[in-house]
UniProtKB/TrEMBL annotation:
Its EC number is 1.14.99.3. Pfam families: Heme_oxygenase. The keyword Heme applies. Gene3D superfamilies: Heme oxygenase-like (1.20.910.10). GO terms for molecular function: heme binding; heme oxygenase (decyclizing) activity; metal ion binding. InterPro entries: Haem_Oase, Haem_Oase-like, Haem_Oase-like_multi-hlx. Keywords: Heme, Iron, Metal-binding, Oxidoreductase. This is Heme oxygenase (Decyclizing). One of its GO terms (biological process) is heme oxidation.
Length: 230
């Protein structure tokens, strides 16, 4: 068998969840390597950068969870309806803790966040595309997000969850078990080859939005030129 055939065979035998992971690895690694991610995960991001990210998360998860509710009974979109994942209540508490009771008046979506949330809301018409956005954020929060959780707690001196509840999934018994089940749900979806490819492309697009958002946060906070960035 030629190398090309062997490669083809391997890719044909991948499950959908394996295709999603393998097909978007370079986009993931670019997002992970971004200055902003690196500052966050090394505990050198200034506190105002952390707060600015939480504010943008609020808009992003509001869009995700709005579409999740709309698609809850849809055979494809509803397959990932897991309200126990939902982050908006935790973000509301984090922002009240970080910015005070008037936090809603102090935050606005950045242009990339507007484009990202428009795209998420548009997937109400394409439920498999919604799954791409759901997977990119929540599986990330259950993976690298758990490393970030430990770092930010130490870096900003948080106690009892206040300020970083976003990273705490206390409605899940076991994160590894949840992720395993989530992948099984993805693998049980009835999506043909072409549709799977479109979803992989949409996940790349979701990573792109996240990377652009981090670049925009760097610019708007002037973090890139700040010696605080480490
Ligand atoms: C400091 C930044 C980051 C670190 C250290 C990090 C780390 C990791 C690690 C170690 C895994 C593998 C976990 C496992 O296999 O169980 C993972 C998976 C994942 N990450 Fe990240 N990550 C980072 C940033 C991001 C960003 C910005 C996103 C998207 C917004 C993201 C989305 C994902 C997703 C969707 C997965 C699951 C891949 C799969 O198993 O299908 N990550 N991350």
């Amino acid at each position: 068998m030629s190398t090309a055939q062997a490669t083809q065979e391997r890719s044909d035998s991948l499950t959908f969840s394996e295709r999603l992971k393998a097909g978007t690895r370079s986009s993931h690694d670019a997002a992970e390597a971004h200055d902003f991610s690196q500052a966050l995960v090394s505990g050198t991001l200034p506190r105002h950068g952390y707060v600015a990210l939480a504010a943008q998360h609020y808009f992003i998860y509001s869009a995700l969870e709005e579409v999740a509710e709309t698609l809850a009974d849809h055979p494809v979109g509803g397959a990932v309806y897991f309200p126990e994942l939902h982050r908006v209540p935790a973000l509301e508490r984090d922002l009240a803790f970080l910015c005070g009771p008037d936090w809603r008046d102090t935050i606005t979506p950045l242009p990339t966040t507007r484009a990202y949330t428009d795209r998420i809301r548009w997937t109400v018409h394409w439920p498999a595309g919604f799954i791409a956005h759901h997977y990119t954020r929540y599986l990330g929060d259950l993976s690298g997000g758990q490393v970030i959780k430990r770092v930010v707690q130490r870096a900003y001196g948080f106690t009892d969850g206040a300020g970083f509840e976003f990273y705490i999934f206390d409605r899940l018994d076991s994160l590894p078990r949840f992720k395993k089940n989530y992948r099984a749900v993805l693998d049980a979806l009835d999506l043909d080859e072409a549709e799977q490819t479109r979803v992989v492309d949409e996940v790349r697009q979701a990573y792109q939005f996240n990377s652009e958002l981090m670049a925009e946060l760097n610019r708007s906070l002037a973090l890139a030129s700040s010696s605080d960035l480490g």
